[in-house]
Amino acid sequence: MAQARPHRVSVQQAWQPPRRIDAIDFWLRSRLLATAHALRETLRPSARRWRVGEHALADAPVLAQYRTPLWSDGRPDEFPLVAGKVQNLRVARRAFDAIEVPAGEVLSFWRQLGRPSAWRGFVVGREVRGGCVVPTLAGGICQLSNALATVAARAGFELVERHGHTARIEQAGPEAGDAIDATVFWNYVDLKLRARHAWRLEVELTATELVLRVRARSPLAMRAAPVTLRRAGDEEGAGAVPPSSLPLARGCLSCDQTDCFRHRPLPDVAPQGRTAVLLDAWTPEFARYLGAHHPVADRMQPVPLRLAFWRASSSVGWHREPVAEGAQPVQSAWAASLRRALWQRLWARHAGGRRQASLIDGQRWLALAFAARLKPEHTQLVVEQALLPHLQLAGALDGRCVTVLASALPMAAIERRLDAACQRWPDDATLRDFRAAPALVRAESAALGRAVAVATPHADIAQQLADLAPQAALQRLDWALPGAKAIAADTQGPPLVVFAASALARKGARELAAALQGWPCRLRVLGSPSDDTRLWQGVERVEHMNWQGDGLAGARVVVLPAHVEHAPRALLRAVAAGLPVVASTACGLAGLPGVREVAAGDVEALRTALRAACGT
Q1: Are 527 and 502 within 8 A, CB to CB?
Q2: Which end of the chain is more exposed for a tag (fewer CB within 10 A), N or C?
Q3: For residues 156 and 224, is the Cβ–Cβ distance under 8 A?
């Protein structure tokens, strides 16, 4: 927000220190004008609020686009106000992104935005007032109004109402020169647009830029010539004052006028901001990565609740790690963690689809709890992949550099693999019992597309993300092998084959059952049995461990021909114990010694690899 220019000046006046009496007078006049305008709009509205999320013009051609930098304007020592501005743009974007305005209708910036209050997420940003850049709640949203006016003019819209700033802030970027100055303040200093045809507005915050696009299906010939109203008080026939001729605003945080009533001490925030790490579960690979690359980052993680009546944990166990010098205390989302634990306990023994849905519910609650704890100065995020789509939908990734700790395949890739397996085994309902909501799948793809770096130990995930996020710097981490004693294979009698999972089709149980037909062997399933009692027909001896005891003892080979497997911990224990391992490429163990890889779904290759590992 910024104060509207009260009158045209031909000569720049010398800056004068602000007086408290002037501030009181401005406050009274602004509230009076805001109240009068609100009454007029109540009796006879000049514009309406347009719905967000319409899709009639989502595939229409782009008429105009405008990009403006987020972080490079202003002085480095005023970074806290710039960070507040970006946070306010994150909140304001929700009101404007994906709105569609009918032909001839007016878009009012203030009517569309609504009251910018703290409870909606607005914070203290910067406002130009009386030649100064002052800290103000919801300050900085003028960057959005400037960009909106500029992209509208490029698209040939009519600027029904527009006002200019009283001073300028140093801007950077190749397009700053042709930007249109359009300030907004409360409700009586507004920006209003109108077009002859229906149009759609898209607002995006990348890590470094604010991007606005206008879409419409109207032909170029129907564009209205840009009509820009003169600023209030301009002389008849005189053009608008160009922004470059305005005086340069003085910043409250960088000004040497310490006796000014607006002066505030400089906050202790580094100009480059801070890094926040958002985790869903502990893994040794990610722990080593974070210790090496982000030792002093602000860490947020769930509470590792171990309820006495719940034997199955919702996440991998957490380890106590030494806190690096300078690091902030770990923030734990107690309420979200407890809610998730109870919810997943409720659905733990239900069918796979509902259980998987409960896992996603818990990830959403955790992500929203973390998003509420993020501060404007958090300019870099390190996010575990399970939280990524929920943070994308919440707008928490906007304007931030994102590093992804990739612990799973993208949901779209998982669904494609399960659909392919379902075609091979159409009678197995577990292969189609759950699919994520399309909006969640799209959000994850969009979030991965904005990642600047990806870290994962999983070879298959790394390959998938190299194709989906080619712009991101990909780092393949080493798998952390657990400490384990060597295990001697039982050479007496038929070979013991250990299936390192529960008897689920997505883990390759169907392919394994087919590969073992006609082969005299023993089978040990580390997890729970299948609901299909006919699954292992033709296999002589089958035992189920239900994740109890030492399931690897006496194994001749450990196998996991999964279609989807993100955390092959049992296979890593087998590798550490020196046992032969046969796994599908979906397990992501490429390069580990002692591992034979086969393609998921290839029964013949699986049978050959198993017999070669057993020496038969």
Answers
A1: yes
A2: C
A3: yes
The SS3 assignment for 91 reads helix
pLDDT digits (tens, 9 = 90+) for 221-246: 344 444 433 333 343 333 445 555 66
For 562, the token pair is 């999964």
> What are the b/e assignments for 565-592, b being 16+ CB within 10 Å?
bbbbebbbbbbbbebbbbbbbbbbbeeb
Cβ partners under 8 Å of residue 77, min gap 6:
251, 253, 254, 266, 271
At 591, phi and psi to the nearest 5? 100, -15
- Checking DSSP bridges between strand 557-560 and strand 541-544, what pairing results, if any? unpaired
Best CA proximity match to 444, nearest among 512, 370, 386? 386
Helix (H) or strand (E) segment spanning residue 594: none
Total-model pTM: 0.85
> In terms of Cα–Cα distance, which of 340, 295, 292 is closest to 314?
340
Q: Which residues contact 533 (CB under 8 A, 6 or more apart)?
A: none
DSSP 366-405: HHHHHHHH--TTEEEEEEEGGGHHHHHHHTTTTTSEEEEE
DSSP β-bridge partners for residue 62: 215
Q: Which residues in 7-89 belong to E strands, given as ranges?
A: 62-69
Domains plus CATH for the chain? 47-235+245-251 (no CATH), 274-476 (3.40.50), 496-614 (3.40.50.2000)
What DSSP designation does 168 have? Answer: B
Direct distance between the N- and C-terminal alpha carbons of the chain, in angstroms, rounded to an integer: 77
Hey, what are 505's tokens? Answer: 């089709």
CA–CA dist 64, 223 (Å, integer): 12
pLDDT for 414-432, tens place per residue? 999 999 999 999 988 888 8
Please name the residue that has the structure tokens 């690359």: 293
Rounded Cα–Cα distance for residues 116 and 110 (Å): 9
- CA separation for the pair 221, 421 (Å, rounded): 52
Mode of pairing for the β-strands spanning 209-215 and 199-205: antiparallel
CA geometry: angle 551, 557, 561, nearest 5 deg: 95
| Backbone dihedral angles phi then psi of residue 29, each to the nearest 5 degrees | -65, -40
Task: Name the pairing type of β-strands 106-108 and 192-194.
Answer: antiparallel
CA distances (Å), origin 278, targets 399, 447, 495: 17, 14, 45
Q: Where are the beta strands (DSSP E) in 255-349?
A: 274-278, 298-302, 331-333
Q: Are 497 and 520 spatial neighbours (Cβ–Cβ below 8 Å)?
A: no
CB 216 within 8 A of CB 197: yes
Of 581, 568, 591, 562, the C-alpha closest to 459 is 591
Strand partners, 192: 108, 161
At 563, which amino acid appears?
Answer: H
